[in-house]
Write a structure and sequence with these properties.
By secondary structure, this protein is mainly α. Helix content is 74%, strand content 0%.
Length: 132
């Protein structure tokens, strides 16, 4: 669902907004600008990155139960989920707390991605050792 919402946004940006601006047809385009005021596209972005990905992170967190880096991964997934959902609800309430999503989407997602690389690499190595 996250990919669907964000992909719709990107496709509209490339297929409608960019082409409309290039043709000089800008009437009503502000609703479709990626980060414009009262933008439909920004709402889709929030739906994808905050609501859907936030829920996905919360549901994925219990998978990682081993000590060490997996514990860090679990807590970072929970932190991302909580901050992202706060951001989504804040967007609906027009609250400045929407900015907490920037922490989740940037720094925390970066850490989660790095730890997932380690997790999948170790899983791959274990699988390869078991196959030989």
């Amino acid at each position: 669902m996250m990919n669907t919402a964000v992909t719709i946004n990107r496709f509209v940006q490339l297929g409608v907004v960019r082409q409309s601006i290039a043709l000089g047809e800008t009437e009503g385009i502000t609703w479709f600008l990626a980060y414009g005021e009262r933008s439909i596209m920004f709402a889709l972005e929030m739906l994808g990155w905050s609501w859907f990905l936030g829920l996905a992170m919360l549901f994925a967190a219990p998978i990682f139960t081993a000590p060490g880096y997996q514990r860090w991964l679990r807590w970072l997934l929970i932190l991302y989920g909580v901050l992202a959902l706060i951001s989504a609800v804040s967007h609906l309430l027009a609250s400045p707390l929407v900015a907490v999503g920037l922490v989740a989407w940037g720094f925390i997602l970066f850490l989660v991605t790095g730890l997932l690389v380690i997790y999948f690499q170790q899983t791959k190595n274990l699988t390869q050792r078991g196959a030989t």
